[in-house]
Structure formats: structure tokens, C-alpha cells
Design brief:
Largest sheet: 5 strands, mixed, barrel
Strand order of the largest sheet: 2-3-4-8-5
Helix content: 10-25%
Shape: globular
Strand content: 25-35%
Distance between the termini: 24 Å
Length: 209
């Protein structure tokens, strides 16, 4: 799987606070457009064999879950302004739906590998025993947290060192469907016994003549 995390960083950097409404559901793909994500079928053979399954962020979203429904019938969202009581009320409603976002219980117990951005939790400095991983730059730090099914709480087997907030990483471990309310957002998944590696952008394929 090729994931251009640096491109995601450029797309989501310096977004206004109102982005949570106007960009809607583009969190996982870095597109900033309204998209209902469809989950891929779970590879049951991989579960039985204990093989590591490389996940895409959209695979954490149950098929048919449509958080965009909350935005339908709300009028012209482009006219909403930060500080407007209507905007604040809508953001609270979106936040409630996103914090309650459903997960995929069939992923529980699977050995998985996932790329993302590191979000430190309080009480740690330089050695990350636990942290969050999110799909786009700035989530939980410079912009509102994404839905709970797009936040993974990572418990590292060995504390990760030499990493900073929003560094890109690969995390590999056992997936659990556990909802945790942290100071940086509500996570719907936990990755236990995780191995943490610095993310390196895959090399571009050679140009064809």
C-alpha cells in the first residue's frame, strides 16, 4: 500500500476551525470532500494464520456508516462562521456523533500494520509508551479530533524514542475494539504490544519509456 502522508500534511495544514464541518468526511483520504467510506472484507484466512494484515484507514469504518447524515438539511454550510451560535451547536452535534462512531468488531484480535501521524498523550516526554495514531496531519493537535473509528490508541511493546508530535510512523500490533476518552480525543481502537517504526515514503516507481 502506498500512502503519501507528506501530501496529507500539506492538504490539512493551517485549516480553519470550521473545517470539521465543511470538509466533513475527507479525514481518511486527505481529500477534503464528502465521502462515505466503504469497508473492505475481512481476510479470515489471515486471522487464522496469524499473519500481519496491512490496513487502510477506511477499513476501520463499518460499511454503511454515514456520518454525513448529520449535515443534511442544515442549509448552506459555507455561510456558517466561527463564533456563530448555530456553528457551535452544529459542531457539538458533529462531535457527539463522531465520538460515538462505530467500529468493526471483526478486527479484534487481528495482527495489523497501520501508517499514521503520532499524537502524544499527557505525562510523557521523549519516550512514548502510549500515544494516538491518526490518518492526517494536525488531527487532535491543530484541528478537531476525527471520528473515534479514525483514532487508534497505541500501546508500544518498547517505548518509542526519537519521535515528535505529528511524526509519521508505522505501528504493528494486536487490534482491540476499545473506546478510550483521552485528553486528545476519543479513540475507538487500541493497538496492543505495538512495534513502532519511523515511516519512510516508498520510492517512486521507475519511469517507463
Amino acid at each position: 500500500m502506498t500512502v503519501n502522508l507528506n501530501q496529507n500534511a500539506n492538504l490539512h495544514r493551517n485549516r480553519p476551525r470550521l473545517w470539521i464541518i465543511c470538509a466533513g468526511l475527507g479525514w481518511a483520504l486527505g481529500l477534503g470532500s464528502l465521502t462515505v467510506l466503504q469497508a473492505a472484507p475481512v481476510d479470515k484466512g489471515a486471522v487464522k494464520s496469524g499473519a500481519v494484515r496491512e490496513l487502510k484507514w477506511e477499513e476501520l469504518v463499518p460499511s454503511g456508516w454515514d456520518p454525513a447524515k448529520i449535515l443534511k438539511g442544515k442549509g448552506d454550510l459555507a455561510r456558517l462562521q466561527d463564533g456563530d451560535p448555530k456553528t457551535s451547536a452544529l459542531m457539538r452535534e458533529v462531535r457527539r456523533v463522531w465520538d460515538d462512531a462505530p467500529t468493526r468488531p471483526e478486527l479484534a484480535g487481528q495482527k495489523v500494520k497501520l501508517p499514521g501521524y503520532l499524537v502524544p498523550l499527557e505525562g510523557q516526554c521523549g519516550e512514548w509508551k502510549e500515544f494516538l495514531v491518526v490518518p492526517y496531519f494536525g488531527a487532535c493537535v491543530h484541528s478537531p479530533p476525527p471520528p473515534a473509528n479514525q483514532i487508534v490508541h497505541v500501546k508500544a511493546a518498547i517505548p518509542a524514542k526519537g519521535l515528535r508530535s505529528m511524526d509519521t510512523v508505522w505501528v504493528t500490533g494486536t487490534m482491540r475494539t476499545e473506546r478510550r476518552d483521552t485528553d486528545m480525543g476519543v479513540s475507538g481502537y487500541t493497538l496492543e504490544g505495538a512495534v513502532v517504526e519511523k515511516y519512510v515514503e516508498p520510492p517512486l516507481p521507475p519511469a517507463t519509456k
